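TASK: fixed-backbone design
INPUT:
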């Protein structure tokens, strides 16, 4: 199907007004892009900034607590931005919406960014934050027995990597992983890269720019902590919900990861949203498909947490 009318209008505006990120230095790209993403903020019982212990210093996080009685299930969330861009603020509206719709506390992680902190700094921070939530979450009203991970784009990569690390390290035990158009392989050799590598917000050139800043040494992209699709086995991972977009260069690798999860016996729900491009979930409130996908993600999380759906 073609781009839907809402997506076409937004994409035309972006293409007409936004410079090419890949032509900028990281600082300039951040100044341009590190603004709150579209979406009406949801009202919550409490929003609190904290700092958690990390492998190389403290990790800033933002904790979103919905109305209700603690302890709440917890979703540890990793923002997108190609491992170079974005922050707690850019994904504030999305995390608020997830907390309210899924009925869970959301812990959004401000992991270290490249190129100042190259791979594997980001996955190290994300795993440390997830482990803290599982071990010390009672301090923030969280049930340590109901912890899930999620992320979009680069953050989807980090959520998948944290799930692998938790399995291999013997914990923490995660009950779910929500992967929103995730980066799962740095090879960039799929049909969706050929079909959608230019003109749909996220381009192949941008991904090459992100990859260079994040990895430093391109050969490291073959490591499972960078490309979880290359992990030897996906057995024993938590149930997964994988969301992809039709007009997205990352579409095929996300769907390939979902297939491998299912083949490994992991309960997996995968859905491709037609007529939309990369980033559409963060555009809930402007794109009907974004709201639908957000509701789908919240419904799957509520089921994983044992909440009424």
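OUTPUT:
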């Amino acid at each position: 199907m073609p781009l839907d009318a809402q997506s076409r209008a937004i994409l035309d505006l972006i293409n007409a007004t936004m410079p090419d990120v890949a032509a900028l230095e990281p600082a300039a790209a951040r100044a341009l892009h590190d603004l709150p993403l579209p979406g009406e903020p949801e009202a919550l019982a409490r929003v609190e900034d904290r700092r958690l212990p990390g492998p190389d210093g403290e990790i800033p996080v933002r904790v979103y607590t919905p109305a209700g009685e603690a302890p709440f299930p917890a979703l540890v969330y990793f923002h997108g931005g190609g491992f170079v861009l974005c922050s707690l603020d850019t994904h504030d509206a999305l995390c608020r919406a997830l907390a309210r719709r899924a009925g869970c506390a959301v812990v959004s992680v401000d992991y270290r960014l490249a190129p100042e902190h190259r791979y594997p700094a980001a996955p190290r921070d994300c795993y440390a934050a997830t482990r803290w939530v599982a071990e010390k979450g009672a301090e923030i009203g969280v049930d340590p027995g109901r912890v899930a991970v999620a992320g979009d784009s680069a953050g989807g990569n980090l959520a998948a990597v944290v799930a692998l690390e938790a399995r291999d390290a013997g914990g923490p035990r995660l009950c779910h992983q929500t992967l929103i158009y995730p980066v799962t392989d740095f090879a960039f050799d799929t049909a969706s890269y050929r079909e959608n590598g230019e003109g749909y917000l996220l381009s192949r050139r941008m991904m090459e720019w992100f990859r260079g800043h994040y990895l430093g040494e391109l050969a490291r992209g073959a490591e499972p902590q960078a490309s979880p699709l290359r992990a030897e086995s996906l057995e024993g991972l938590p149930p997964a919900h994988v969301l992809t977009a039709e007009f997205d260069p990352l579409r095929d690798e996300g769907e390939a990861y979902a297939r491998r999860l299912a083949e490994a016996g992991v309960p997996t729900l995968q859905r491709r949203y037609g007529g939309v491009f990369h980033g559409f979930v963060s555009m809930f409130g402007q794109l009907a498909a974004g709201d639908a996908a957000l509701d789908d993600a919240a419904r799957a999380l509520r089921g994983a947490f044992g909440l009424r759906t």
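COMMENT: The chain has one domain: 5-305.
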